[in-house]
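Show me any protein, keeping tokens residue-aligned.
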Amino acid sequence: LSMAFRDVNARRHVGLQQLSALALAGRTLLGPTKSCKFIVDESTNQSTLICSAFRLFESLDLTSAAGQLLNETIQAQNKEFKTGMSTLLFLTGVWSSAVVECLQQNVPISAIVSVMSEGLNSCCERVQCLQRSIHDVNKELCSSSVQSKTCQIGCGNPQISHYFQKEISAPEKVTPVNSHSQPEDCNFNKCLVSPLAGFGSVASLVKPAGDKSTSLISESSSFASGCSKQKLTHSRYFSTLGSSAYPCQCSGLGHLVMALSHGNQTSTKLLQSIVAYQQERAECSGSSQFNVAEIVTCCLLGLPESYSCVSLGFVTLVSPEQATVTKHLEDRPLHILLVDGDLTEKYRHLGFNRPRNVRTILKSPILQEDRAGDSWLSNMLDILISFEVNLVLVKGNVCENLMERCVANSILVIGSVTWDVLRAFEEVTSAQPVTYLTQLNAACVGSGAQVELWKACDGRAVDLGELVPVRVKAQGIALLTAVLTTTVASKVQLIEDQFWTSVYRLHHALNDKKVFLGGGAVELLCLSHIQMLAEQPSQPASRDSVKEFPSPWLAAAGMEYRSVVLQALASGWKQYLSVVMCNAAEAASELEACTAVDHHLKKAADSGSPSTYILQEFRKGALLRGGSGPLADHGEGFKVYDNVTAKTEAWRRALDLVLLVLQTDAEIVTGPKRSQLLNSGVSSEFMFL
């Protein structure tokens, strides 16, 4: 009977097996060194390169209920944190397999649920000792970088302006920038804040062509990597730094950006430029040091990735016809209009109620509709012309016919603009958003906006064929656009996702005001802690067991299965660390990785204080290193850190999903009443009788 029960038990929980199978697809997406996947659309034969669990499941056609629940859980994690989805997916898979193994050993569902839940809660409490405040991390990173003479990657230092594109009013020929050298009396604050005072106000920083001293402004005024070939004199990859390395300004967040980037160099440098700019602006205005709402992205297909840069204002793609209007409007102060909705005839705002008991009778419906459409187009165009509007930013869609008429009248209309962009221009142009053009009055029209064709780092306007990048700006605007470039169409979504992941990691770290030690330190302590609890002898509830598991009910119930369930929970952490090491080439196989993890566990146990041992190994950069590269190290003097809330929420969501599917499967097959008997630990023989 027992064997038959185990067989039925395994077949019954199909949902857990589906979760485990789906999670296998994301194993290579775990850790800082990921293996990207190509997702092919069968209908169009177009492929997209993805490197996150969110994009993977977004592209899959999921038919099972368990798969849909997993997708919704990943979407929720992405919506709230933009990071931790791969961890969530992997732990869901390994814990699903672990729960199935527990079921095969006749462990009651109630014991699995209670012990795993309390075990994870105990882990979350235990790893709090590995949290570090943002202030302490900044101080430590800056101190380490000064000692190793590698503080050249952004704590408010001039070289990150290499990625920053600004306004220039200067002689035609200027000295190219050497992004890795330090000019005397150079103040990066002035370099970044000057454009806020007015366009062309950085001219004083430009030196004549004959002046051989270093300038902060390149010939094209575009600080993009790789656009000018300069001799590299300062880099954390080379030791030829000499005495020109200068002390780090510890008030900056540049090192924290890098510590949270997990090796994404391009996004790191762009974000460091943004952070430095916003910090300088915050010192002047008293605003937040880092504001995600003031950042947007624009992806350009057709330029090398080295052309990626940060541009002040709003950069977007428009049609060639709109680009012609932009060229016509260049160097002119424009009247700007903001539309909070669609600019179409049939658009109605949310909550609009059509009048009841109204019937419209048309003798010739098609003709009448055409005339009504022409009348609406003419009225809308007349309104724009009467208020001398040159530029319209629309949150939603724009009627194509109206767009054509506006182009013919030299009015630039840009649709699909986010609310953050509208708000940024509202603040600096005094424009007031309207829902319909019929609401327009003189007070709603803003002034002081400018448009121009966006220029690459070589100073030339870029024509990408079907779409042309343009920039909308205004004096004093805080909005920044990260212009992300690539020549590979399938990488467009990937580089944008990577950038936003870096942005939100910093955002959540600042909100939490603390970070975890990275590189597997937290997971290793979880594994050590759970194994220690599992090795404790199963006995009636004692003060010690109640102390470890705060719930008295848990300490008294299911002690017989406590060790088995805790070992199952620990197996998830062990597999997590093993796969991360394999993906990062720290181990040739999972067997070798498991051996390395076991070695650390033994040394941590022998030390008497696992947390102290892990902290010491982290500081030495020797944590989970078994091969060619560091997991907890970005190079000399730099460590990896993780978000606190995003990581722990990924754990909780993974376990909650597994336990939900476990209990749901039991109720579907056995019914609620019999499921309650099974959950309560009734023997399998009784159930079959």
In short: The first helix runs from residue 2 to 12. The mean pLDDT is 78.
